[in-house]
Specification:
homodimer; 442 residues; 2 domains
């Protein structure tokens, strides 16, 4: 049981599409069936298709010999109890929900790989030293309700459930009502500890309180959702940090006026001013260099009429970096540049902070182990920053946390076009399995 | 009757707010009452408030001793028949319709001044040599139906009425149905010549065909709708030309992608590309100098989501100049610059022409007379280009045409805030009256 799995046992040079990989790919396809109608996969929190997916997972976990546990917000766990129950739990997984018309890999891949890895490890090496859990978090995307990380946020203490009453979806259904509708009994049985195998009960949730203090490490396998691995021809991304993020709403006010009768030098054109700001944003971001990214994704013009000089422009800023200080410095620099542009043009400027999330550095010990595993398995890999947010960022401040990326074709995600090849998915599974072995069996 | 009105008779140094000016200001206020509810004045073509305004004008014209004539699209004329009926008609006036929540001066001022000038000339100098007509065109703004110049366009032959069947307002009412509803009998009595005074009939229109071939000169007095006269402290603008106009829709396509996971150098950001184009537009327009103006008033981003790099941007271009060649050359230059930007950024570009209107030069003889009148009356004036479109532009290719501008406070128009002072309005009336005297009495 103390075999050097990374070097000796892990099939470094074996064909990729082997039995465990096939099992994982099959599970991914099975999960993709649980979707609302329409292109791609749409599996929003607490909808019938979401319930069926989580119930299906419980059945599958039980069938694979894992002990099934769910909590009072609908997170589902498959557990492999260790021989040292006093040791903290090694947790791996991702989220079961999707965006509207999303793909079948974002989130689901990390769950399918987690279940498969635990099954493989149990079959190959028997009971681990430390308890292993595969988790299917109920929600991460924020696609139905205006809250993200509803699953991992409960596990890590970001949420306590009090948010559910006031938070509603676009049709006015509150999060609380959606939970009741779906048979999720948040709080109802919070006195009860983890309630063991409920795979036969036909319900999801009704379990223990979601908050966990027994996690010793969290590992998340995920598609990159970017184009870096493909462009640099690497099989594996070893995530060093999940970028911190600042969002702002910027309001630029000038003077709406007649497009024909106002000479160029007498204008306070809010759109021309905004254009200069957006170019400055792009230029300064390129100058700052990777991993900084800065985006204006949403822009509205008022009155938005062809023959009227724009009087007002509203646009968003989304700025990300893996280092808090660099992130802050860039935001300061951009906002100062915007102020200068506004002042020179006689425009008024209002900058409204909308979101501030700190960078989440991954654990150096775990990333070092991932690099060793990649080398031992003969895989190409690179260190990288995750520009996208992930459940892992909530665990990073609380326990050693790692993320493994596999390539996304053309960098596309949140789309029915989302794709990673069976070989790429299998490579990620192999790396995850090797790390879990290191963490739970040695 | 051959007195030198401009020099001797016209009250050059008399107080401005004299009897005729008071009559005109009163008429302006009376017309402003005919409005749909809401801020400012809303008087859309063939609505009840429009009908009441045109009917009121017919009554007023008749009361002032003018012969009232209307045509089969609802243009209303007040006529002062000349002693030489074989001479062509001297026509002056503007449009009675407004934009939604417009002001009380745009259009109505030119009508009120025309009626007042004719009354004053008749009272002071008796019958003119050449027939004088004050006109209230039924429509110019295009605010209800997607057609502009419906009144002057019929008079000059741009329209023949066949457009009315297919053209509908935002509620689906066709122009034809609106005319019937309003009692306007387009075409019904087109065999009938100008039918004389109908002021007592209670209807507008039902008159002769609108097309006129007997116009010897057209003079339009209008508020500037710009800020040039105010900024340069001039009382009168002598319009040299109405700018030609080109409109385009520009489509910029890049690649929508994740704002967090796509490094800056791997982006095809359609909004950043559009921003560079808009800055180039502004810069090249400033370089080209007056009277060129170039505006992007409308811009749409797709998918317009804060954390997605914009994949597509659509924006409008509105480019105006008084010289056809300069206008063409600037459009060519801008479109070439856009192509260069798109190519360098790996964006695709589609440029769709939407409107092309040639510049309309005013008559040199008439503008010379206006300058003399201003000098003789001791008024400050400047030559200028009208960046806005006006009824006068349809007459310019067909007969000697002139436009007189008075200042608009802060350059504001198409707004309830539209304002010109009584003194400014009176100055315009004096200049118009003097020109009409020159044209009809000498």
């Amino acid at each position: 049981m103390a075999a050097d799995y990374g070097k000796a046992v892990c099939p470094m040079n074996a064909p990729m599409i082997q039995a465990p990989a096939q099992e994982m790919l099959k599970l991914l396809e099975e999960l993709a069936v649980f979707s609302a109608p329409g292109a791609g996969v749409t599996r929003l929190l607490y909808t019938p298709e979401w319930s069926r997916a989580q119930f299906f997972l419980q059945e599958r976990m039980a069938g694979l010999g894992l002990e099934v546990v769910s909590d009072n917000v609908g997170n589902v766990y498959g557990k492999l109890t260790g021989r040292n129950p006093e040791d903290k739990v090694i947790l791996t997984g991702s989220h079961i929900d999707t965006v509207i018309n999303g793909g079948k890999y974002d989130g689901a891949y990390g769950i399918a790989a987690a279940v498969t890895a635990l099954h493989y490890l149990q079959q190959t090496f028997g009971q681990p030293l430390r308890t292993l859990k595969a988790v299917s978090f109920c929600e991460e995307e924020g696609s139905r309700f205006p809250l993200t990380f509803w699953g991992s946020g409960h596990v890590t203490g970001l949420y306590d459930g009090s948010e559910a009453e006031a938070c509603a979806d676009s049709e006015g259904v509150t999060l609380e009502a959606a939970m009741v509708e779906c048979g999720i009994g948040m709080g109802i049985r919070s006195d009860k500890a983890e309630s063991g195998d409920k795979s036969g009960s036909g319900t999801v949730g009704m379990g223990s309180t979601a908050r966990r203090n027994d996690i010793g490490a969290f590992v998340e396998l995920h598609i990159e959702q970017g184009i870096i691995l493909e462009k640099t021809a690497k099989q594996i991304g070893v995530v060093q940090a999940i970028a911190g993020q600042r969002r702002f709403m910027v309001e630029v006010c000038g003077t709406a006026n007649h497009a024909g009768t106002t000479p160029m030098h007498m204008r306070q054109d809010a759109l021309a001013g905004a254009a200069e700001m957006l170019l400055a944003l792009e230029g300064l971001a390129a100058e700052a260099g990777e991993p900084l990214v800065a985006t204006s994704g949403r822009l509205e013009v008022l009155p938005n009429t062809p023959n009227v000089i724009p009087g007002e422009v509203l646009f968003t800023l989304d700025i990300r970096h893996s280092e808090e200080e660099e992130l802050e410095a860039f935001c300061d620099c951009i906002l100062a540049a915007f102020k200068g542009i506004a002042a020179r043009r006689g425009l008024t400027l209002k900058i409204m902070p909308r979101l501030s999330a700190s960078p989440a550095p991954m654990d150096g010990g775990l990333t070092g182990m991932l690099e060793s595993i990649c080398r031992n398995q003969g895989r190409t890999y690179r260190n990288m920053v995750s520009g996208a947010g992930h459940d892992a960022q909530l665990f990073a401040p609380q326990c050693p946390t790692a993320m493994i990326f596999v390539p996304s074709r053309a960098g596309i995600s949140h789309s029915p076009e989302e794709y990673s090849s069976p070989e790429e998915l299998a490579a990620g599974l192999d790396v995850l399995t090797a790390l879990l072995y290191e963490l739970a069996y040695k």
